[in-house]
Amino acid sequence: MIEITAYALQVLLIIIAIAIVVHKNNGTIIILITSFSLVTASLYVINNAPDVAIAEVAIGSAIIPLIYVISISRQREFIVLDRARDDFLKRAFDKEGIGYRLLRDFSEYYKLELNITDDPELCSYDPNKDQVLCEKTNVDLIIQKDERTGEYLLKGKDSSILMHKLEELASEYEDIRVVRFKDGDFGD
Amino acid sequence: MVILVIKNGLLIALLLVLLGAFYFSVQDLELMYNTFAKNYYLENGFYQTYARNLVTGIYLDYRLFDSIFEAGILLIAVSGILWISKQDIEKHNVHFMLDKFKTPDLFVMFARIVYPLMLVFGFYVIVNGHISPGGGFQGGAIVATAILILYYIDPNKETDPTFIVSIEKIVFLLIIGFATISIVTKGTMFTNPFTVDNIEVQSIYLLLMNILIGVKVALGLWTIFTAFLKEGR
Fold first, then answer.
1. Which residue of B138, B224, B225 to mutate against A (max A Cβ within 10 Å)?
2. Which of A17, A168, B31, B125 has the maximal Cβ count within 10 Å?
3. What's the predicted TM-score (pTM) here?
4. φ and ψ at A112, to 5 degrees?
5. pLDDT score recorded for residue B90
6. Is A105 found in the same domain as A170?
7. What ipTM was estimated for this complex?
8. A81 contacts in chain B (CB < 8 Å)
């Protein structure tokens, strides 16, 4: 009987491993990884290794999923720093700014949560050092108005895949320009 | 395109070579298989280490040198995570919307019931490491999980990870110091320092060593959580 259980659990492990690779939803993947380590722990118990099983349960099904939950929920927010402070990002019932419409389409496409802020401390930071701001803080995008041409500049990191999609979306609008910072100009 | 095909072909050829090497080495393993080490540990393990759980006897007596470096690996990993997550522009970050949400009351209620039980179970696993399955690493991980629940109850709890790491370093030095005492009493390093032939006296060494390793692992994992929670705040 115990041998049949062990074979069934091993087949289950393969199925779970394939499911982890195939699935797209992050929450489902975390639960699958947790169940993978639970099945592994029961296999360890069947093979007379209870010490390893306790370590596997404590690490694989408690600590790792909690760390994943923390870090994935941080990554789901798209933080926009609004330096322009005019109707561009206005959100109202009757009239919404073109910038807000663009960013809303963009965040719906990637299932992100939009977090628009006009934090006074960050807005007063030197505009020439925007790249440092993007690298060192959690700001993903900086919106600024060019005084001479009247264009709106969207600044972000070049390495982010999201920025390429944003550039593609912004090409439909005339007075929006996307600026991408190059990587590796400075480092620590 | 051609380069890609050549690259993939080389990779597949490498995999086939590895598979062949594995196949032939497994045939050799059949000849090498014996039960000498198993029988040795089963016959002499208890009388040489006084550990009723032989796994503890191995990792705290026969292979203590390896265990010390395993503890060192965790310390290095924690220091690396702290170094990666450090930030230069401090306290200028935007507040996450996530941090403004309140933890559900039901979760807080259950966490308050489960938290003391998890702590007690963790200490039980550490203290009984030389008698029943468990030990310093496993118990330390359980204690660290219990501490992590505190951060889910109160997300704005402030901790200084560098302070915790400095305690962890001191505990690591204590482990090394305690392991080297036996050079005075027995003449060899990294073994049980007590010479009295009594199970209870000899168990003191295993108990203290398990507690030290448990404290060290719990502090290390706690530092990793705080570094992840502080990241981007």
1. B138
2. B125
3. 0.80
4. -100, 165
5. 54
6. yes
7. 0.79
8. 94
